Amino acid sequence: MDPNYAPYVSVLACSIFVLGLGAVILILNYMLGPRRPTREKGIPYESGDEPHSKPRQRFSVKFYMTAILFLVFDLEVVFIYPWASKYSDWLKDDAFAGIAFGGMMVFVAVLTLGLVYEWKRGAMEWE
Amino acid sequence: MSPPETLVDKLDSPWLGVVLGVAAVLGMLTVNVLFLVWLERKVSAWIQRRMGPTEVGPFGLFQTLADMLKLLSKQLITPRHVDKPLYHLAPLVVFVPVVAAASLFPFSAGLVLQDLDIGLVLVFAFGGLAFVGIFMAGWGSNNKYALLGAMRSVAQNISYEIPLILASLSVVLMSGTMNLAKITALQSERGYWFIVLQPVAAVIYFIAALAETNRAPFDIPEAESELVAGFHTEYSGMRFALFFFAEYSNVFIVSMVATVLFLGGWSGPLLPGPVWFFLKVYALVGLTMWVRWTFPRLRFDQLMSFCWVVLTPLAILNLLITAFVARLV
């Protein structure tokens, strides 16, 4: 295996270990706790009332809009990560410094334009 | 260049190192979370002129430990008609990334379990994984309030993730690395904290972090007066405890990130590194508690438009200005 992967494997091993530990905690609780299910314990909790409709109902389309907006900006961030960490190196190279700065300016400008468009279309107004 | 020495390298067997290290991180996190919950109750009591917990142990210090043991012996109620795989997996999906993220931090020079060049990205990535768990819990619970709480929670968290990351990236821009240990070392090398040069980013980060951890004034996902308990309404016993653990660990983790990025991490005069690190983290945690018990809750539409209309453009602007100034200097 490529030794460069070693730290990531260690992160994975760490996650699996914690997953197992969490499962053990839950199993311990299952063994220690009482098991006396009743009808009332089984119904969805609505502050004591009997539930009068199905829980999975239609929800506002705004949540969907937010998710789309998030996807766009999260992708933007994915591009900015490597740019941000290499930027100070690029600045030392006079020929490339302008491109490093200007390129990101253009990239962000396009995205900001999109944000302004969304804003004007009312995607950020929740009422 | 050889990779810096980490805890794992010091032990002969790497796997033993990982397991011991994770156990240490988990222990550290557990102690801190138990203490944080106690502290939160004491701070809120102090602000509201009450006593807070007093019975168990000195100053009620062991109250949360007793609560944990109580939860361990409670019945695990599984309501009918839940989506079984989602419902059962959700607490673990929320719990695991939190601990994994905590294992990436440098508590002092060389005292780091996993020293990765993309440490910062991984911390945010693990943070993002927890949203999946939250939505699994909300959707799987077969409960209106849980679903509504999860919707709001995820919408809020993914929105505030953007300014949070953009604000952190302006620090990355200045340090040229995403390695948490190197960012810290750089600040002690240069002799100033990044908050001096990036005050705007620090403020944006702090506000976004409050929202990320679902704390007042952004605690809409679990607005008790509207939604019972939000996405974990249907969880009892240790399942609930895992969510609760993750929530307080998150407060701790965002404070640790802020400490590393803006406050110089473990660097400081006289006292040893870990002491400085935890002092700074607890100063920030104290600040979040003060904010929580002082400000009223925002409305959801105010919350969302504040993020997209104010914070995100401001964070982008701050990033570009940082890039511009870095080019001039």
Describe the 3D structure.
The complex is a heterodimer of chains A (127) and B (329). Chain A is mainly alpha-helical and 127 residues long. Chain A has one domain (3-121): Methane Monooxygenase Hydroxylase, Chain G, domain 1. Chain A has four helices and no strands. Chain A has helices at 6-32, 39-42, 61-92, 94-120. Chain A is flat. The termini of chain A are far apart. Chain B has 329 residues and is mostly helical. Chain B has one domain (78-328). Chain B contains 13 helices and two strands; from the N terminus they run ααααββααααααααα. Chain B has helices at 7-10, 14-47, 63-72, 84-102, 119-140, 144-175, 180-190, 194-197, 199-212, 224-227, 237-262, 273-292, 300-328, and strands at 106-108, 111-112. In chain B, strands 1-2 form a two-stranded antiparallel ribbon. In chain B, helix 9 (199-212) runs antiparallel to helix 11 and helix 9 packs antiparallel against helix 13. Chain B is globular, with a radius of gyration of 20 Å. Chain B starts with 6 loop residues before the first helix and ends with a helix. The mean pLDDT of chain B is 83. At the A-B interface, helix 1, helix 3 and helix 4 of A face helix 2, helix 4, helix 5, helix 6 and helix 11 of B.
